[in-house]
Each structure stands twice: as structure tokens, then as C-alpha cells.
């Protein structure tokens, strides 16, 4: 299984080449399918094609992502890179998934736009650097 740092760096590459989906569901069809940041975490961590439910069923998508420990590990790492506090994901509630997905699509207070793709990639690469520096538990 690849390390969290490697998964995060590959996520940055995927986002750089395919962009991000910031609308409803976790993915949208188009000339190139676009994925939500947490969907990217899932497909890269699991090394598999995009599940059909990502386009149609948010609840099933959340269940699939939450069931993937490698995806949740990198989503938590991104969440920590966004804020200086831990966002819990307890009792099956996808708080960390919501935190990361909403961060990508929501403009910060005092800003006119949500984070740019470059800012998202920068955050992911900072999370990758931290994951590389942190010894495995």
C-alpha cells in the first residue's frame, strides 16, 4: 500500500490535470469526468476507477469513502493542513469529509472566491510533506 505522502502527491497530480468538481454529488460527467477532492482521495488511495455511485448517490459515496482507511487518512491530513485543529469524524458522521469538500467550494470570509486549484494543490502538498515527516504510528 502506498504511503499517505505518496497518495497525497498523486492526488495533487490528478487535480492538476483534471481539475476539481465542486457541485452536487462527488463527481460530474463531462469530456473529462471531474471529481470532488474526497472522491479523488478515494480513487487514488484505493487505486481503482471512479465508482458509479459518485455520480448519483451521495449517501452511498460517503459510505464508500468512509470505509476506506487510506482515503480517510489522507482526508484527515488535508483537513489538518486547512486548519490548526482536528475535525472529528465520529459516529459515522463524515465531518472531515464535509470539512474538506466544503473548503474547496466555499469562499473564505473576506475573500471573493473559493480557494483556487493552485491553493488546493498547495495545501495537499503541504499535507504530503507533513505525512512524510511524521513517523507511522
Task: Report what the structure shows.
The protein has 137 residues and is mainly alpha-helical. It has 7 helices and 2 strands. It has helices at 4-18, 37-46, 53-56, 58-66, 69-82, 95-105, 117-133, and strands at 27-28, 34-35. A two-stranded antiparallel sheet has the order 1-2. A hairpin with a 5-residue loop joins strand 1 and strand 2 (34-35). Helix 5 (69-82) crosses helix 7. It is globular. The two termini are 15 Å apart. 34% of the residues are buried. The model has no long low-confidence stretch (mean pLDDT 89).
What oligomeric state is this?
A: single chain
**Beta strand %:** under 5%
**Mean pLDDT value:** 89
| Percent of residues in helices | 55-70%
How many β strands by DSSP? 2
Number of helices: 7
The largest β sheet comes out as: 2 strands, antiparallel
Termini separation: 15 Å
Please list the strands of the largest sheet in the order they lie side by side. 1-2
Computed structural class: mainly alpha
* Structural shape: globular
SSE order: HEEHHHHHH
Question: pLDDT below 50 for ≥5 consecutive residues: which ranges?
Answer: none
Q: How much is the radius of gyration in Å?
A: 14 Å
Amino acid at each position: 500500500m502506498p504511503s499517505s505522502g505518496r497518495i497525497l502527491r498523486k492526488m495533487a497530480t490528478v487535480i492538476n490535470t483534471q481539475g476539481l468538481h465542486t457541485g452536487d454529488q462527488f463527481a460530474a460527467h463531462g469530456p473529462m469526468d471531474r471529481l470532488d477532492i474526497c472522491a479523488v482521495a478515494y480513487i487514488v488511495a484505493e487505486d481503482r476507477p471512479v465508482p458509479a455511485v459518485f455520480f448519483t448517490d451521495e449517501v452511498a459515496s460517503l459510505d464508500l469513502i468512509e470505509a476506506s482507511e487510506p482515503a480517510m487518512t489522507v482526508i484527515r491530513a488535508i483537513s489538518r493542513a486547512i486548519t490548526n485543529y482536528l475535525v472529528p469524524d465520529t459516529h459515522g458522521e463524515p465531518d472531515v469529509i464535509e470539512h474538506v469538500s466544503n473548503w474547496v467550494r466555499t469562499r473564505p470570509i473576506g475573500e471573493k472566491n473559493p480557494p483556487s486549484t493552485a491553493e488546493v494543490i498547495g495545501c495537499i502538498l503541504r499535507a504530503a510533506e507533513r505525512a512524510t515527516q511524521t513517523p507511522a504510528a
